[in-house]
Amino acid sequence: MASDRWHHHALRLAALSQNGLTFMEDPFDRQRWEEVRGIAAEMLAAGAGASSGEIVQSLSREDGYATPKVDVRAAVFRDGEILLVQERSDGRWTVPGGWCDLGESPGVAAAREVEEESGYRVRTTKLLAVYDKLRHGHPPSTWHAYKLFFRGELTGGAPASSVETAAAGFFAEDDLPPLSLGRVTGAQIRRMFAHARDPSLPADFD
After folding, report:
1. What CATH number does the domain containing 99 carry?
2. Could you tell me the residue range of the domain that residue 45 belongs to?
3. pTM of this prediction?
4. How much is the average pLDDT of 182-202?
5. Does pLDDT of 2 surpass 60?
6. Is the pLDDT assigned to residue 199 strictly greater than 60?
7. Together in a domain, 46 and 128
8. What is the pLDDT of residue 50?
9. Do the Cβ atoms of 97 and 74 come closer than 8 Å?
10. Measured between alpha carbons, how far is 164 from 118 in angstroms, rounded to an integer?
11. Angle, nearest 10°, between helix axes 2-23 and 52-60?
């Protein structure tokens, strides 16, 4: 789709400007790279529903060589149903997860996110998928990200809300609530059910 192509171009321009500002040797190059960042921000703002100024501020906080962010998710099942949490930001539901923190291993991060967002404690037992967010039908966003899905086994806890989530519950594959598509898609959840039915499946990757 044309909109996907423009989104990819905008992310690439944002990365090029970050790399240029990081490694430039001539101070006169700063104005050029900042202009490239401004163009990228205008393109990203058109798809994200934000102002270009807000996007520039967000992009300017990044430094060093530009790489994809890492988003970790945990697929947790009970009695054939998957654990989902309701996001306060949009009122929709997702597999619990979020950004991996610096110095934190992905499996540990996924388990932490489950407990913070749902109240349940889990241990991660298998990497199920590594998805490139650009290739799975998510709405346009400011960041290029890799999405890591882990299998999580319940070890304790109870449903609880959090600063970011309003509710937690288990849902059947054919009775999913409205999804927060910036975080998870229906196809990804169906694939997690497929992994639950057949634990011998290898990890998916792009």
Report:
1. 3.90.79.10
2. 2-60
3. 0.75
4. 97
5. no
6. yes
7. no
8. 64
9. yes
10. 10
11. 40
Name the residue with tokens 């998510």: 138
Give the CA angle between residues 50, 148, 137 to the nearest 5°.
50
Cβ neighbours of 18 (radius 10 Å): 22
Reduce the secondary structure of the chain to three states and give it as a string: CHHHHHHHHHHHHHHHHHHHHHHCCCCCHHHHHHHHHHHHHHHHHHHHCCCHHHHHHHHHCCCCCCCCEEEEEEEEEECCEEEEEEECCCCCEECCEEECCCCCCHHHHHHHHHHHHHCEEEEEEEEEEEEEHHHCCCCCCCCCEEEEEEEEEEEEECCCCCCCEEEEEEECCCCCCCECCCCCCHHHHHHHHHHHHCCCCCCEEC
Domain identity same for 135 and 159:
yes
Q: How many domains does the chain have?
A: 2
Q: Does 182 lie in the same domain as 135? A: yes
| Phi and psi, residue 31, nearest 5° | -60, -40
Same domain, 34 and 95: no
Mean pLDDT of 28-54: 75
Same domain flag for 171 and 95? yes
Q: Please answer whether residues 3 and 47 qualify as being in contact, where contact means their C-beta atoms are separated by less than 8 angstroms.
A: yes
Same domain assignment for residues 19 and 48: yes
Between 134 and 77, the more confident residue is: 77
pLDDT tops 70 at residue 142: yes
The amino acid present at 39, given as its one-letter code, is I
